[in-house]
Write a structure and sequence with these properties.
Layout: E1 3-10, H1 22-32, E2 34-41, H2 42-46, H3 49-60, E3 66-72, H4 77-87, E4 93-98, H5 110-119, E5 126-128, H6 133-145, E6 151-153, H7 161-170, E7 174-178, H8 187-195, E8 200-202, H9 211-219, H10 225-240
Parallel strand pairs: 1-2, 2-3, 3-4, 4-5, 5-6, 6-7, 7-8
Helix pairs in contact: 3-4, 4-5, 7-8
Length: 244
């Protein structure tokens, strides 16, 4: 069964982590049977927003297995709105990545709300990374106020995965992404049982976590083959509009 990885970073990291380029990303995909990877620019997240998004667009052009996230930052409202218009119209860009934490802004700050509002016209999911009670409360308010937006909680919110599951149970426009580096043996089955089989997807968070590690969490979960297929492919295909 081909797999969809909904969370990969391309570029160098300012930490002791070996970054991924297109060639290494595609090598890992081939090794682990990943048919599509949704990739974001580390430069756009932590450096130059416009340059990073543009470099990502150029890097994945001609690589149909790689699909882009447009990074946006509420500290740069006008520029982020321009970036949404520039990149989310591209057929190979499948979502936005809201960098509220890196920008030291609450997820539901007025500029973040404005960016969510402007993203609605593109009908593509927004990847978010809540890690604190305040951020979960802010995401809860956003999801309530923008019921037609789709919010994906990245990397299962690490150690806060139970809170993330609870929010996804409460808000049907919140999707829970399994994966990442946090060790939580029962998180995958717990998420599928509590949220239901349709709003849980998989993302490796590479290179911060190796795909073999993130896949192991799914493959070791006490789920039948059909549920694992949903998690590793079918749900992401529906959420992101990816056709294999």
């Amino acid at each position: 069964m081909p797999i969809i990885d909904t969370h990969v970073h391309l570029g160098a990291w300012p930490t002791p982590v070996t970054g991924l380029d297109v060639a290494e990303c595609e090598r890992l995909m081939k090794q682990f049977g990943i048919a599509r990877s949704c990739v974001a620019s580390t430069e756009a997240a932590m450096g130059d927003l416009a340059a990073g998004n543009q470099a990502l667009a150029e890097a994945i052009e001609g690589h149909p297995t790689l699909l882009g996230y447009c990074a946006i930052n509420p500290n740069l409202l006008d520029l982020s709105a321009e970036e949404l218009a520039r990149h989310l119209r591209r057929p190979n860009f499948v979502g936005a990545k809201l960098q509220a934490a890196y920008g030291c802004r609450p997820l539901d700050s007025p500029p973040a709300r404005e960016l969510v509002k402007r993203s609605l016209r593109y009908d593509k999911p927004i990847l978010v990374e809540p890690r604190t009670r305040e951020e979960f409360d802010a995401l809860n308010r956003l999801a309530a106020d923008f019921p037609t937006a789709k919010f994906v909680i990245a990397a299962m919110a690490a150690a806060c995965w139970e809170e993330a599951v609870g929010l996804a149970v409460a808000r049907t426009n919140v999707i829970f992404q399994c994966g990442g580096a946090h060790a939580a043996r029962d998180a995958v089955k717990y998420a599928m049982d509590e949220i239901g089989p349709h709003r849980v997807i998989w993302g490796s968070d590479a290179p911060l976590a190796h795909p073999v590690y993130a896949l192991g969490m799914v493959r070791d979960a006490e789920l039948d083959a059909g549920m694992k297929d949903r998690l590793l492919q079918a749900n992401a295909g529906r959420v992101f509009g990816i056709r294999l």
